[in-house]
## 1
Amino acid sequence: MDPKRPWECADMSQVRSEIDRIDAALVDLIAERYGYVDRAWQLKMTTQEGAVVQWRIQQVIDRVKARASEKNMPPEMVDMVGAQWRNMIGWFVQYEEEKLRQAQDAKVKSGDNGSA
Ligand SMILES: C=C(O[C@@H]1C=C(C(=O)O)C=C[C@H]1O)C(=O)O
């Protein structure tokens, strides 16, 4: 069935179905984002770039908040969206740090000290 626009919903069960549809799509997008973060730590092993890239974190949050403003969200909601991203990025950075640490440990154990 076609998605209903908000004003087309005649009862709460229709509203809840649409919210469930949107939540599933958001989770799918976060899963897709995770795929790229997973690739990021692998590439950072060769560039020696750390998990935390402060300028990039700021850029991502600025972009997301600008987009939220363009969508006419009230300022408090723009801040809320920014906070959600900060939280998500915080988790991804920890994930990358852990992966990089594990990869480094495996390298040390295998006797590869990085010098060619
Ligand atoms: C993906 C990266 O790694 C980290 C995670 C980020 C993210 O989840 O958007 C952003 C910056 C990084 O600290 C990156 O450096 O771009």
## 2
Amino acid sequence: MGEFELIRTYFAAAPCAQGGEGIALGIGDDCALLALPAGEQLAVSTDTLVAGVHFADPCDPFLLGQRSLAVAVSDLAAMGAHPLAFTLALTTPSVEADWLQRYAQGLNAMAQSCGVGLVGGDTTRGPLSLTLTVFGRVPAGQALTRSGAQPGDLLCVGGELGNAAGALPLVLGQRTADAAIAEPLLAHYWSPQPQLALGLALRGKATAAMDISDGLLADCGHIAKASAVRLVVERHRLPLSAALLAFVGEDQAHVAALSGGDDYVLAFTLPPSELAPLQADSWPVHVVGRVEAGQGVTLLDGNGQDITPAVRGYQHFRQTP
Ligand SMILES: Nc1ncnc2c1ncn2[C@@H]1O[C@H](COP(=O)(O)OP(=O)(O)O)[C@@H](O)[C@H]1O
Ligand SMILES: Cc1ncc(C[n+]2csc(CCOP(=O)(O)OP(=O)(O)O)c2C)c(N)n1
Ligand SMILES: [Mg+2]
């Protein structure tokens, strides 16, 4: 099977490639065309996943299909954008019909659950990697950026932290666990759920937001820098799952939640008056700290002692001392 038959069979024919809201022209021409309603801005984000770096290889291609789109769409959630479309650049060493079929099925499942259409991409031969670019729309001026956090705001997250990082030894086959522990952890690694509805609900309320990919401390550092404030994280407030605590114990659960990464839940800052209404509407909002004047990120233990670690999160090309 050649390049074009592959594209036709597995991607152009996929249900998620048959058009949708805002898609004026999809797969097949030199560009796709997206139509935006008047007064809306286009939100654009791209993410690459490399075999052995971002996901275990070999792995279940259906799960990879889900995960590769979920991590990309998570950036739209973080901006409070409404999802429209995505492109897929696939680099693969060979054409394995079964692998491609199941990858496309996983991609399609996540595309349908997020409401995004596949509008184009690129297919090349080489070591396995995937680059997904996502497009969303947001009313002009209403996107949630990293730069609006104010002293006095609460620092919040949209769900449990550390589950995906805790799953890594299971993903890599280094450890095993009972299904009651393994299943919820592996679900967070392979099938993160972009918090699109929460992102929309936070528009006009959160003063800053982002999604946690590298780890809470590292990603809070980006909000702190962009907003020129200090973010204080209180370790005893971290939302940790029973499965994570049972699998790795409290100390390692803290490490996973603070600097493991791969969470793909939102981190955001909120004026205190906005908290009760959001919680009353059952939005998953967990207060994990606060915003102060100053700079950087500080981690406090339950006694208010500064226990900020040197290593904050995942970084490609990190120099080891
Ligand atoms: N090679 C690059 N060229 C231009 N911009 C880049 C490049 N790599 C990353 N960026 C930009 O730098 C910022 C930080 O990137 P990153 O930490 O990867 O964001 P995210 O966690 O949202 O994926 C983003 O605005 C991203 O678009
Ligand atoms: C097999 C495997 N090993 C390690 C990790 C952990 N990991 C790899 S990249 C990464 C951070 C997120 O990737 P990045 O490219 O920085 O995403 P971005 O911040 O751009 O969204 C993490 C936590 C993983 N997901 N899978
Ligand atoms: Mg990135």
